[in-house]
Amino acid sequence: TVQESAPEINPCTTCGACCAHFRCSFYWGEADDSPGGTVPVDLTEQITPWRRAMKGMSSKTPRCIALVGEIGREVGCGIYPVRSSVCREFPYSWQDGVHNERCDQARATWGLPPLPSPTEQK
């Protein structure tokens, strides 16, 4: 018989630390007030004439306005299908076998351990 493997569980759904640690700015044209933009402009703030960031990310206790849930338990992105490129391109540590120290840094800020490397999981 063919043994089916379980789908890989995305560790981001139980983390969310990066969404409450880094202020990730993106090109203003990614907002939906620009032709072809998708990020809801009312959830963003202007950082420079050419860059925007999600509201909530410039405070002393940053948290993206689109992050829903409890960090370290269960989280999601309220605008996941239309999130910015900087969010889409941020890999969790060991995604595709590549270590991401920034993921570890965000997790540590929230008291979460680094994600185990593929060799530690076996």
Explain this structure.
The chain is an alpha+beta fold and 122 residues long. Strand 2 and strand 3 form a beta hairpin. 11% of the residues lie in helices and 15% in strands. The protein has two helices and five strands; from the N terminus they run βββββαα. It is globular, with a radius of gyration of 16 Å.
Order of helices and strands: EEEEEHH
> Mean pLDDT, as a whole number?
91
- State the helix count: 2
Q: Give the DSSP E fraction (strand runs of 2 or more residues).
A: 5-15%
Determine the structural class based on helices, strands and strand pairing: alpha+beta
Distance between the termini: 24 Å
Determine Rg (CA atoms, Å).
16 Å
Largest sheet: 3 strands, antiparallel
Helical percent range? 10-25%
Sequence stretches where pLDDT stays below 50 over 5 or more residues = none
- Give, in spatial order, the strands making up the sheet with the most strands: 1-3-2
**Total beta strands:** 5
Shape: globular
Could you give the topology of this structure?
Elements: E1 25-27, E2 44-46, E3 51-54, E4 67-70, E5 74-77, H1 85-88, H2 101-109
Antiparallel strand pairs: 1-3, 2-3, 4-5
Descriptive tags:
5 strands; 122 residues; alpha+beta; single chain
Give a short summary of the structure.
This protein is α+β, with helices and mostly antiparallel strands. 11% of the residues lie in helices and 15% in strands. A hairpin with a 4-residue loop joins β2 and β3.
